[in-house]
Amino acid sequence: MILYRGNKLETKITDMLNHVTWTQYLCGILALTFIYYTWIVIRFYRQDLRARYRGKKNTFLQPLEPPATEQQLPDQVIADQTITATQNGEKTFDRIESLIGELKSQIHQKQGGTGETGLLEKLRTVIHAYPDLKDSPFRPSINEMIISECQLVEISPPDETELQQLW
After folding, report:
1. 8 A C-beta contact, residue 116 and residue 75
2. How many CB atoms lie within 10 A of CB 73?
3. What is the CB neighbour count within 10 angstroms for residue 53?
4. Cα separations (Å) of 29 from 18, 39, 42, 145?
5. pLDDT tens-digit profile, the chain (167 residues)
6. Which residues cross the membrane (predicted)?
């Protein structure tokens, strides 16, 4: 199809484009796209490429750190509860580990004749020895640990209401 508008240049361009196949057109677009993005990588990521090939550090896979203004502080609310400075100390984590150890011990000591209510009473006794952890943000994790340990030793785990009553 030749459009003639009085300009021989338009006729030559139209005639030239009629001879280009879709395959040639797509190959040309892919080549130009590859060249463009290669230039972008070289232009803006030259230092990262050098560091990567020298083996200094893998900058492409490093996690981004939030700006200093967005970092979590110990008094920020997590899971609808506030973590105070005393809860965030090593003493609290030591107490949590001690509680978990005693709970696991009670669950694994359970003999076949003891019964589920006897186990719940033993667990309640252990938990009441740690009143400072009652309102801890770690309480859901401790509850999950109790359920998983009961399932591990093939004891029917306590339901949600029984877990709430333990505390």
Report:
1. no
2. 6
3. 8
4. 17, 15, 20, 57
5. 555 556 777 778 788 888 889 999 999 999 999 999 999 999 999 888 888 888 765 555 555 555 555 455 444 444 445 445 454 567 777 888 888 888 888 887 765 445 566 777 888 888 888 877 777 787 888 888 888 888 887 777 777 777 777 77
6. 22-45
Alpha-carbon distance of 148 to 155, in angstroms, equals 10
Tell me how far CA of residue 63 lies from CA of 84, 99, 118, in angstroms: 28, 34, 49
| Size of the chain in residues | 167
Residue 23 tokens, joined:
């395959």
**Verdict on whether the full-model pTM lies above 0.70:** no
Rounded to 10 degrees, what is the CA torsion of 42, 43, 44, 47?
Answer: 60
End-to-end CA distance of the chain: 85
3-state secondary structure 44-80: HCHHHHHHHHHCCCCCCCCCCCCCHHHCCCCCCEECC
Contact 153, 111 (CB under 8 A): no
Task: Measure the CA dihedral 7/13/18/21, to 10°.
Answer: -170
Give the separation between CA 74 and CA 138, rounded to whole angstroms: 14
